[in-house]
Amino acid sequence: MTTKVDKRGRSRLQAYQGFVGLDSSRDLFNQDDGERQALHVLENAFADFRGQIVRDGPAEYRFGTKPVRHVVHYDTDTLVVASLYNDGIHLESEQGFGYDFVLPSSAIVTSTIFNRNIMLTARGLAPTIFDGSVFRTSASTAATVALPAFCTTVQQRLCIAGVAASDTVVMISAANDLDRFFGDEAVDASSPLRAANIDILNLLGTADKITGISSFETDKLCIFTNDRAFVYKIDPDVTLWELQTEASATYGCASHNTIKEAGSDLLYCSRSGIHALRRVTDNGLQIASVNLSEQIDQVYRSLFNQVDDPQEITAVWDQDEGQYHVFFPIAGTGQFNRLTMTLGGGNEGIRASFSTGAFINAQCGTTLGGNMVFGTTRGAFNVNKTESNIGAMPDVLIETPVLWMGELDGYKQAKSITMQAYGDGELTITAIDEENRDKWQTTVMLTGEDDDGRRTVPLQRQYERPMSIRFRGLRFKFEFSGTGLFRIIGFAVELT
After folding, report:
1. How far apart are CA 128 and CA 144, in angstroms?
2. CA-CA distance, 205 to 225, in Å (whole number)?
3. Domains along the chain?
4. Are 345 and 32 in contact (CB under 8 A)?
5. Least buried of 111, 245, 366, 413, by fewest C-beta within 10 Å?
6. 224 CB-near residues (< 8 Å, 6+ apart)
7. What single string gives the DSSP state of each residue in 333-398?
8. What does pTM read for this prediction?
9. Nearest to 27 by CA among 402, 464, 472, 370
10. CB-CB neighbours of 192 under 10 Å
């Protein structure tokens, strides 16, 4: 779509396309960008790499009926979940295996996969191991005494942290042994494959503490605190592990369960936004933390400030879709809001675009081999790929900022609006003026069928509707519901 003036100069088309997702860095009245249009509201849909608005994928029930606090794939056919029952949190698998020890309802569960075992940890509790058929308490005396909050896998070793005795210590297992940590071995143990501890106390200038740990770049361990991160180069010989002084990670991590490896980046959430720990482009040698969510700073801070305990925030990385989903529990409501960062959205290389949603009240997620699962307040659901018709479909809400259509001053007269879109369902369009008054509304029935009724491929159509209104500025609200697909390529307003 382009802006056009007829030969008599009596009308023109003002087009909006190339959508870039949410932007809260500017106010509602200062975001008329035309061909790279930012949005004020984008719920249950996202801006893809072409700058088109695409409905989020549908969800199909998979397993369980209780609220899922944590979910992890053991394999593509087996989920392990931490579900909230009346008496507390139960660990159970999709295949019917359960753990008879009940965790407190306030427990925040974390997990990692090690040698085809899943280790699950929660602050103040002994680690639990799942081998595909049986849950058991860790056989490590040191680990069960430590009662760690977090766990991760780094090459052939398990790492645990957030220990009851010291919030600045990371405990490292012996190589290829998930049940042997420092303290389980003889005092004179000298093997380079032995267990060890790292204490970052002397690196902290305040009463800071570890808030998360993760592997990074296959040969590094990243230790997050509230205010920063430390990166260690690891080696098969534990005595050669070394702090990387060239790392400059000036943003700390708010929640261990938001740390996800995404290609060469390590994504995580801080108090102020979504960040990536990565190699900086200047020389490729320095490791630095980069803020990826500056354009939605207000949106992020609003969601973050509605959470009682930041450690309850979780996230999942969908490699196939290039999406990082963050789940915020809204205090006192039992509701969860999702913030999605789509990399490569907005038709600008690796630019990140953002959207929100609350579909199926998802609160955590996991992915394996393209199999995305959301843990919700009523069980686990498979999330089907975008534009599938399988499963329950989310309702979509889109709102533009105030659009001035060429000039800030003076009144304009609209003649019609044309939508370039495809889908199956009902689309309601509402025009609201700069003083927040509803000026016009219409409903469009989208159809993906050819004129003879045969469905081939999703059919892009232009839907034109008369719209005779006088205004200075307009913002548009698009509401879509239905069982079918939905995509907006762009829209244009004809002015006289």
Report:
1. 9
2. 12
3. 4-56+397-495 (2.60.120), 109-245 (2.130.10.10)
4. no
5. 245
6. 210, 211, 212, 213, 214, 252, 253, 256, 259, 268
7. TTEEEEEEEEETGGGSTT-EEEEEE-GGGEEEEEEETTEEEEEETTEEEEEPPTT--SSB---EEE
8. 0.92
9. 402
10. 12
CA-CA-CA-CA dihedral for 37, 40, 43, 49, to nearest 10: 20
314 three-state secondary structure: strand
* Residue corresponding to tokens 């800030």: 408
The two structure tokens encoding residue 354: 């953002």
Closest CA to 355 of 150, 13, 52: 52
374 with 381: CB under 8 angstroms?
A: yes
CA distance 207 to 46: 40
Predicted confidence at residue 344, as pLDDT, reads 74
What is the sign of the dihedral through the CA atoms of 84, 85, 91 and 92?
negative
Strands (E), 394-481: 396-399, 412-423, 425-433, 438-446, 461-471, 474-481
Each as own residue / partner, the long-range contacts of residues 88-95 (CB below 8 Å, 24 or more positions apart, any chain) are 90/66, 91/120, 91/128, 91/130, 91/135, 92/64, 93/130, 94/62, 94/63, 94/380, 95/133
Q: Pick from 402, 379, 486: which is nearest to 81 by CA?
A: 379
d(CA 309, CA 149): 14
N residues, the chain? 496
Residue 174's alpha-carbon distances to 110, 193, 230, in angstroms, are: 21, 6, 22
SS3 content of the chain, % helix, strand, coil (to 5): 10, 50, 45
Nearest to 319, CA basis, from 355, 371, 277: 371
Q: What is the predicted pLDDT for the residue at 363?
A: 96
* Backbone phi and psi for residue 3, each to the nearest 5 degrees, phi listed first: -80, 125
Q: Cα dihedral sign for 14, 16, 17, 18?
A: positive
Parts of the chain with a pLDDT under 50: 1-3, 5, 7-8, 346-349, 450-459
- Terminal Cα-to-Cα distance of the chain (whole angstroms): 18
Q: What is the pLDDT of residue 451?
A: 46
Of the candidates 44, 7, 56, the one whose C-alpha atom is nearest the C-alpha of residue 384 is: 56
- Say what the pLDDT of residue 455 is: 45
Look-up of token digits 């049986």: 134
Residue 284, pLDDT score: 57
Is 329 strand, coil or helix? Answer: strand
Question: How does pLDDT run across 250-308, given as a tens digit for each residue?
Answer: 899 999 999 999 988 999 999 999 999 988 766 556 888 889 999 999 999 999 999 99
CB of 22 within 8 A of CB of 10? no
